[in-house]
Amino acid sequence: MVVLKSPEDIEKMRESNAIVAEVLEILRELAKPGVSTLELDRKAEETTRKRGAIPAFKGYNGFPYSICASVNDEVVHGFPSKRPLEEGDIISIDFGVCYGGYYGDAAVTIPIGSVSEKARRLVAATEEALRRAVEQARVGNRLGDISYAVQSYVEKEGFAPVRDYVGHGIGTRLHEDPPVPNYGPPGRGLVLKEGMVLAIEPMINEGTWEVRVKENGWTVVTRDGKLSAHFEHTVALTREGPRILSLPA
After folding, report:
1. What angle do CA 42, 46, 50 make, to 5 degrees?
2. Strands 67-71 and 90-99, how do they pair?
3. 121 SS3 class
4. β pairing state of 203-205 and 211-213
5. How many CB atoms lie within 10 A of CB 120?
6. Is residue 179 reached through a cis peptide bond, with omega within 30 degrees of 0 on the bond before it?
7. Taking a C-beta distance cutoff of 8 angstroms, is the pair 182, 166 a contact?
8. To the nearest 10°, the Cα dihedral for 130, 184, 75, 199?
9. Chunked in runs of 10, what are the mean pLDDT values of the chain (249 residues)?
10. DSSP assigned state of 188
11. Which of 99, 41, 78, 30 minimizes the C-alpha distance to 218?
């Protein structure tokens, strides 16, 4: 069941998403060669708790960390570790909080130092796919219009949208209906309504869209070992158009 949010709900969600945006900006500045993803995780949790919020992912279905730190061929749900980031890596950081009973969720992919041309193109294409998807998050459109905006763009750029993992509704729960795929035909699916809030999150692979899960039961990697990138915003559908809640304040 899709839960429509009131303007008051959306303002409260903006507060939680502002914390998410702040933390991601801090982590973007910290993510340099020599810094471990475990250090980034600790900084995210420390900052979140100082703001009176709770890391949304830590303990969620048993996930043991505050951020998902997915490096290079890791798609999503990567475990932070002591491994230092290296020049040429790309790291996708997915992060969420709960504040005042409402959730925020966003993700960025960060190039570490100088990266390959293919990595640069992949990151840029994934971020542009998110922008195009958000533009389709309009009252009266169909859910498939969001999905098609991602797939049609990234495939034209020579990349592949992941099919096994999707975006989602969000509100007083981290994951709500509807699922938001990154592939599919336009003009199909749910009619988008005012008050929907969607976590739109293109996960785009350099090679095949196929993935597998590592032995830890969480970390998703590309099946061919090639790179993956991930961007996400929490977006409210208003009569004036899409409102990105997870932008910096």
Report:
1. 170
2. antiparallel
3. helix
4. unpaired
5. 13
6. no
7. yes
8. 50
9. 97 98 98 98 98 98 98 98 97 98 98 98 98 98 98 98 98 98 98 98 98 98 98 98 95
10. -
11. 78
Q: In Å, how far from its chain's centre is CA 181?
A: 13
Calculate the dihedral angle through the C-alpha atoms of 7, 9, 10, 15, rounding to the nearest 10 degrees.
130
Contact call for residues 141 and 161 (beta carbons, < 8 A) = no
How do residues 160-218 score in pLDDT, each as one tens digit? 999 999 999 999 999 999 999 999 999 999 999 999 999 999 999 999 999 999 999 99
Question: Does the CA dihedral 57-59-62-63 come out positive or negative?
Answer: positive
| 93 torsion bin: left (phi>0), alpha (psi -120 to 50), beta (else) | beta
The 8-class DSSP code of residue 80 comes to P
Alpha carbon distance, N-terminus to C-terminus of the chain: 31
Instruction: Tell me the torsion sign for CA atoms 78, 84, 85, 86.
Output: negative
Q: Closest by alpha carbon to 35, among 96, 77, 95, 80?
A: 80
How many residues comprise the chain?
249
pLDDT for the residue 3? 97
* 225 SS3 class: coil
pTM: 0.97
Residue 190's SS3 state is coil
CA distance 199 to 176: 10
